Amino acid sequence: MSSTKYRHKSSGKVKVAAQILLVRPPFPWDCIRDAQRECSASIETAGARLRTVREFADGAPNTWKLHQIPWLSALIAAASSANRSFPNIDTGDSVSLKDHDRFIDWLICAICEPPTNREIVDGLERYRSIIREKRVFSFQDTGAIDLEYYPHEIVMEELSKLVHTLKSQTQITPIVLVAGIFAHFISIHPFMDGNGRAARRLVFGLLRKLGLWGSAPLPLPFLLYRDRMHHVKSMRTLVVQRNAIQYISHMMSLMGASAELSVLVRYFHPEEPSNIHMLA
Predict the structure, then answer these.
(1) CB 260 within 8 A of CB 53
(2) What is the dihedral sign for C-alpha 239, 162, 193, 88?
(3) Are 109 and 152 in contact (CB under 8 A)?
(4) Is the dihedral of CA 92, 93, 95, 96 positive or negative?
(5) End-to-end Cα spacing for the chain
């Protein structure tokens, strides 16, 4: 595990983080590939949840025959007797992210239909103005830095590698590939701000492009932030300790649960379809 010392200023006081974890390439695709067999049950379950719920999520709520999905019926029964308010996770951001969205949409298309090397270079160059040119870190609740993402000098190179993922990782199943791309993107952290939101847009777009999900938004942030510490821990286990088992299991559960929550929100608020966008 890589680490280093770092002095961090906060509120006029100098804080010294004990150690900083360094996220460094190469991204552990080999670990993800090798962990697939051990995670096969959670991978198959996640795929089944997405396939089953997708049929309902793309149709009108009054056409749903939810009793055909026993576990979803149970969720609806529980939610009916509980507080059905769904908070907006991704609002209040003062940074304009339209250029980030355009870049992610380009990246989704490039990953699924890889362009030529020249087109990749040109495409990345178009968005150079939003790509960071500084070091970026993750912070503890105390304000101390505890993790540093990829060096800014290699961000463009790593994004280029990300485009070739489908071609280079043919032994990894599509749904696991999407989870891996999410972690690789977060490791790169190409922007100064808005990386988490962009990464979730990337996941949603890839699931759609690869035929794993339909048009209904996936409320990933709502579930992610409910257990953020577990999410962070599983990702760090992958990108720092290079152990993929916990991360794959976590992401399979997260994507399956997001699909089901997508249906729940539309079931309770069919007249307000925008509610689901509040969570996505």
Answers:
(1) yes
(2) negative
(3) no
(4) negative
(5) 33
For the chain, give the mean pLDDT. 81
214 or 97: which leads in pLDDT: 214
Cβ partners under 8 Å of residue 197, min gap 6? 90, 93, 97, 100, 221
Alpha helices in the chain (DSSP H): 29-35, 40-57, 70-80, 98-112, 117-126, 155-163, 165-168, 174-188, 195-209, 220-226, 228-239, 245-268
Please report the domains of the chain, with CATH numbers, ordered by start residue.
24-81+94-133+150-278 (1.10.3290)
Q: Is the peptide bond before 26 cis (omega within 30 degrees of 0)?
A: yes
Provide, rounded to the nearest whole percent, the portion of the chain with pLDDT above 90. 55
What is the predicted pLDDT for the residue at 11?
39
This prediction has a pTM of 0.82
Amino acid at 98: K
Mean pLDDT across the stretch 23-47?
96
pLDDT band at 91; cut points 50, 70, 90: very low
Q: At what angle do helices 155-163 and 174-188 cross, to 10 degrees?
A: 170
